[in-house]
Please model this.
Amino acid sequence: MSFRETVRAWLAENVPKTVENASAEERIATAKRFQAALHDAGLAGLTWPAEYGGQGRTAADQQVFDEEAAAYDLPTDVFMISMGMCGPTIVDLGTHEQKARYVRPLLRGEEIWCQLFSEPGAGSDVASLQTRAVRDGESWVVNGQKVWTSGAQHADFGALLARTNPDVPKHKGITMFIVDMHAPGVTVRPLKDMTGQAPFNEVFFDNVRLPADAVLGEVDAGWFAAVTMLGHERVSIGGSVRRRYDPLTYTNLADLARRLGRARDPVVRTELAGLYAAERALSLFNTRLRQEADAGSPPGARGSVAKLAGAELLWRAVRVAGLIAGVRAAAWDEGDPAAEELAIAINATPASSIAGGTNQIQRGIIGERVLGLPKEPQVDRDVPFRELRVGTQA
Amino acid sequence: MELVLDSEQRQLREAVRELLADHCPPARVREIMGGDEGWDRALWSRLAGLGVAGLVIPEEHGGSGAGHVERCVVLEELGRALAPVPFLASAVLAVDTVLALGDAELSAELLPQLATGELVAAVAVAGDEGTWGSAAHSIAVTRRNGVFALDGHASFVVSGDAAHLVLVYAGTPDGPGWFVVSGEAAGLRTTRLRTLDPTRALARLDFAGTPARAVAAADPAAVLEAVRDRAAFALAAEQLGGLDHVLETTVDYAKVRVQFGRPIGSYQAVKHACADLYSTAEQARSVVRHAAWTADHDPGALPVAAALAQVVLGPGYFDSAAAGVQLHGGVGYTWEHDAHLYYKRAKTSELLLGAPEEQRARLADRLAL
Model:
């Protein structure tokens, strides 16, 4: 049986049905059962090292899996940060002990991770973060606040950036830590986004103690670790599989046009074709990035192209949705879940061009790190962190 | 699906790129632009010497039987250099028409000469309004004493001025059909059109009792469609080459041009525009490689993949070429700088097979919208 056939047969047998109105706890329990079974079947962490619980396969196999999985709505969204960002960074930078301890449970969905980077005063300029970790004998004591932390309410561990030396320029005094989200002093408070839901949180650290072996990478080399993880994040966001019920995909908008009797309208047709073209161009680019990775050239900063193009694609889809539905996208009768979903998707679209690095940040990365254009003059580059003005504080 | 070039394909690219660097620098392109003849015969012979005109022609007919991926690699380089040679006309449109017609005798006669480049052929499919296939209405076929004769005209014929032979889509009393006309035929008048793009010659052909040879085809309109699909992604490959040139020269300029005390590429307004050019180019490259691969390995999916390539590359190249002029500022608007040549080629290419709205409508048809 080919790998594709194996995947197809396994998915047909094992993907759980989506349960409407399931509670968050039920959804996570379902996701964990599914992920453990996926790992038992040898289909989790396909490209991850076999030594730590992965399968050691190629990106081409991952592509096969993604293509087959596209026919389903897998319940694995809750693992996106674990598997798309934190896990690959542990694999890249962790000690043997850290990899042996954390990677397998992460891949099995037994432990969920979150990313603790952004702060109220450190958004696009993550390196200006103020949460501090101070040495106390062999251990570290952490105080500060993180924000926009997706999934922190479900997380068992977090990858934390904290300032370990304020007397050097901002990039040089940061360390990445592995933090137990259940430790004393960690408080997670939900934060509502503009859709009215609360997928992200504020996280407070009040004298949280971390052991010496919580450092991921080197002390004061946290910026390197952060860049590593942000690279994985962009690839993960840009290359992520769209959900089948996502109302802003070409397929679902074409269906909407048919349902509303708009599919023969010449403007609707050409705009839908344009949307298809943009969606396909991005997906083919992602395929090519994976094939190049298999051939030995990793995507690096080019992942920013996928992230940027993905956001632009969504904005285009919002425009096409409006063209198709007109004011029907803005008001509807009670009990019309499709209209409800579309409205939520329209309201959630700004996240695509902000979360994981704004479009402006992505263009800066492409310009500087891919095309080699000169940087803006950096006024804070050589100034010790403690002398900097940060965020919107006076 | 394979979207990354293998080492042989990369070698082919290097060989063509080197030849063009030596024999088709911008100065040479401008020489041809200003000359009486719309193309570079010497360059065409050199290119043909590499065997690139026969890449999709089967070995039994004198080609290399390589494939569309390889031909697209060549087209990328030609587009990057704005090489004034009848490759699109002869090695793409004419070769693909003969292959799609599938007439054994015609193939045996023409393909070996097309493969070596000694025969330059063009394809005439449009009338005055320029839509593909409209030549079936603007050219009437009659049969006198057992000989076919054409009356009427075709226009926008790519490299029509260079052709020794023209494949013509013309109207018979029984519907459209395909005909072969010698470039030297009596009653054929070839006139070069004035063109927006000085590096690509287009011609009008007038037929007055012009003798022609009929080529039997079960479904002449299907041949036309097949050729148009292949032209769509072949042209897209050429457009991709031009787009790459625009990206590279613009980024290079942004690194060296200093204003207000620093390189303009350090300003976000310029840097972000360069990032958008890169994003466009990288997605365009994926789409072109996919269409070429599809033509070789999954022909059933080609109609969508080919339409997709034109939808992405048409506006993608033109908008980038326009941005290229903009980012060069005043010097980009001068005749002396090459940016305008890419702008003009991009606009012509965007319209050659139908305007962007028409291309998107065509894609919509293929998606069964």
The longest strand of chain A covers residues 139-150. The two ends of chain A are 65 Å apart (CA to CA). Chain A touches chain B at residues 254, 257, 263, 266, 269-274, 276-277, 280-282, 284-285, 287-288, 291-292, 295, 302, 305, 308-309, 360, 362-364, 366-368, 370-377 (CB under 8 Å). The CA atoms of residues 20 and 62 of chain A lie 29 Å apart.
